[in-house]
UniProtKB/TrEMBL annotation:
It comes from Dillenia turbinata. This is Uncharacterized protein. The keyword Transmembrane helix applies. The chain crosses the membrane at residues 20-40. Gene3D superfamilies: 3.90.550.50. Pfam families: DUF604. Keywords: Membrane, Transmembrane, Transmembrane helix.
Length: 501
């Protein structure tokens, strides 16, 4: 049939790829589809409690006027805000009971707009109505052909969320944002990303897979659906016009996101990459990526059932709830990495604000520290540095270089000083003693305090890391750090005044 000239180079040619690739492909499909997997496990540990949350203050509301670099924006329109965004969340009745808990953590009833699209009716409880988007049942797609050997035809239903949403005729929409039921969005940062672009033009904004082979098999031009992607209203309308006809041309594709990319490609629109969308096609602990986040706002986290919980001693949902505290205080800075040195003690210190602090015994350069350490593996199991679509470094097992990691335990806003105080406590792991190294032993430090002024306009400036400075303190076992904009001439190096003291 006519399909052959249009069929996907990535999927339908699989059968001619070496057997090993085929095997890998089969194994990833086990993970890829949220509709065929059911990897749910909620460990029953207690979370470290976040004390004094009830007294939590938030920074005052920010004025809508900012010194914005609105280079792609029309001059005469208001700034993009939450009201302009409609979410389309792909879900399945089978996994809804567990997955809805992820959506509840980030969804803001009466502020966020959008729908969860299900394959069939689910039981709705009262507290769901007040904490979740409206549920809709997708249209019947049995008339479309689906011929991929290992995938699931729900992919067609999910790709049509775009045309079904546009079909609702909602007003004042600038962006359609797609995500899965196991995607966590940092809504404020999503807006920070989208407000840079003119929604009247055709934009397709998202990010790739972390696993290089996934991008080879799907496309480096594809916005991965679980990491979430945004389609400008203009493009969504254009897609709606062609989508059903377009879908018929690609029955051999695997998923919903490659179907969308195939149709976006017919309109000649490339993927605008924003690295804050995280598909998380990784296994194990995402710590390495999060602790060395690219210098761009953190927009989403995906595959929450597959990756380890992002905080130790907390389950997956509790971990996301803990992130809500730094999100409320200073969302723009969430997970942003600052690097500094304690020259007298010979330590490298890395702060990933609102998440974790690490101390490494020894001086490690910024160009090393900004590479994610491989606490995770690619979907092909090996922690192989060539398996990823970005640079990584090994996670030091050597007892002398192994980082001491402190995780967020609490954060508050001090309105007198206009700063946030966040506390990080040592993750207790057994350590053999390191004898071969000079310098102080970081195990004396069991908590870290980080002070930082909230910076809602961080991303209106050219991307740059904040600087951090270690302050003297009399508190025993505590490291006190200030994080903020770098001063004139300040660079990330061991400062000479305390180098050999
Ligand atoms: C902005 O200007 C464009 C072009 O002049 C016009 O088409 C559009 O309607 C204007 N939008 C608003 C909100 O005034
Ligand atoms: C949302 O708005 C409706 C109608 O204005 C109101 O009844 C409801 O209490 C609001 N819900 C929340 C969670 O604010
Ligand atoms: C979808 O449509 C087909 C063909 O019209 C029909 O057989 C099937 O029962 C429908 N499925 C649902 C869930 O309504
Ligand atoms: C679906 O596949 C069948 C068999 O290959 C073909 O006859 C039919 O035309 C296809 N339908 C569409 C809508 O492409
Ligand atoms: C706090 O500091 C930030 C960053 O300098 C500034 O934007 C904000 O207006 C300040 N807020 C108050 C209440 O002073």
């Amino acid at each position: 049939m006519k399909d052959s000239s249009f069929s996907s180079p990535s999927c339908s040619s699989n059968l001619s790829l070496p057997k090993i690739i085929l095997f890998l492909f089969i194994s990833i499909t086990l993970f890829y589809s949220i509709y065929t997997t059911n990897i749910i496990c909620f460990p029953h540990q207690n979370p470290e409690s976040l004390t004094t949350q009830t007294h939590l203050k938030t920074p005052p509301p920010i004025s809508p006027v900012s010194k914005n670099l609105q280079t792609h924006l029309p001059k005469n329109e208001s700034k993009t805000s939450l009201e302009h965004i409609v979410f389309g969340i792909a879900a399945s009745a089978k996994l809804w009971k567990q997955r809805k808990n992820y959506i509840k953590v980030w969804w803001r009833k009466n502020e966020t707009r959008g729908f969860v699209w299900l394959d069939k009716k689910v039981q709705v409880r009262n507290d769901d109505v007040s904490s979740l988007p409206e549920l809709r049942i997708s249209a019947n797609v049995s008339r479309f052909n689906y011929t991929h050997k290992y995938g699931h035809r729900s992919a067609i239903r999910i790709s049509r969320i775009i045309s079904e949403t546009i079909g609702l005729g909602l007003e004042n929409v600038r962006w359609l944002v797609m995500g899965d039921d196991d995607t966590f969005f940092v809504v404020d940062n999503l807006i920070r990303v989208l407000e840079k672009y003119d929604h009247n033009q055709f934009y397709y904004i998202g990010s790739n897979s972390e696993t290089h082979l996934q991008n080879i098999m799907f496309s480096y031009n594809m916005g991965y659906g679980g990491g979430g992607f945004a389609i400008s209203y203009g493009l969504a309308k254009a897609l709606t016009g062609i989508q059903d006809r377009c879908i018929q041309k690609y029955p051999g594709l695997y998923g919903s996101d490659d179907r969308i990319q195939a149709c976006v490609a017919e309109l000649g629109v490339p993927l605008t990459k924003e690295l804050g969308f995280h598909q998380f096609d990784i296994l194990g602990n995402p710590y390495g990526i999060l602790a060395a986040h690219p210098v761009t706002p953190l927009v989403s986290l995906h595959h929450l059932d597959i990756i380890h919980p992002i905080f130790p001693n907390a389950n997956r949902v509790q971990s996301l709830q803990r992130l809500k505290v730094p999100i409320r205080l200073d969302s723009a800075s969430l997970m942003q990495q600052s690097i500094c040195y304690d020259g007298s003690r010979g330590w490298t210190v890395s702060v990933s604000w609102g998440y974790a602090v690490q101390i490494i015994r020894g001086i490690v350069s910024p160009r090393e520290m900004e590479r994610p350490s491989r606490t995770f593996r690619s979907w092909y199991q090996e922690a192989d540095p060539t398996g990823f679509a970005f640079n990584t470094r090994s996670f030091e097992k050597d007892t002398c270089w192994e980082p001491f990691v402190y995780f967020l335990s609490n954060a508050i806003y001090d309105d007198l000083r206009n700063w946030t105080a966040s506390e990080y406590v040592l993750d207790r792991v057994s350590r053999r003693t390191c004898s071969s190294k000079k310098g102080a032993d970081p195990s004396e430090i069991h908590r870290v305090e980080v002070y930082k002024t909230p910076d809602p306009f961080l991303w209106d400036k050219a991307p740059r890391r904040n600087c951090c400075r270690i302050n003297p303190t009399k508190k025993k076992g505590t490291l006190v750090i200030h994080v903020g904009e770098c001063r004139e001439g300040e660079i990330i190096e061991v400062h000479s005044e305390n180098k050999n003291s």
